[in-house]
Amino acid sequence: MNEPKKVLVAEDSSVIINLTKNVLLFENFHITAVKNGQQVLDRLGKENFDLILMDINMPVMDGISCTKAIRKLSDPEKSTIPIIAITGNYKNYTLDDFKKAGLNDYVQKPLDYDLLLATVKKHIDN
């Protein structure tokens, strides 16, 4: 049996964290949740993940700034990790804006959990 894939969820809403965890745990993903971009960088410094779900609007450090910081890391594995934006104000950004920031994809809020799962699998089952 393969090791469960590790997903880091960066989201300041406990409700969305819990719903996302439930969906992904059902598919045998290992989930770690943090509340802001700085905590993402701290966790990445300590362990490896297969994918990051990144809320765009978070306190301390937002998802765009955090993604740019991850893309500048010297570790080639960590700097290229797939990052999927989770955003409620997607109208303020285009997919091109997300790509320029280094994000691989996005899912808009309110979350469609079937779409979220499909998007995660698209980027993690390589």
TrEMBL record:
Transmembrane portions of the chain: none
InterPro entries xref list: CheY-like_superfamily, Sig_transdc_resp-reg_receiver
Pfam families: Response_reg
Chain positions found as 4-aspartylphosphate: D55
Span of domain Response regulatory: 6-124
UniProt entry keywords in alphabetical sequence: Phosphoprotein, Two-component regulatory system
Highest taxon listed in the record's lineage: Bacteria
Name of the protein this chain belongs to: Response regulator receiver domain-containing protein
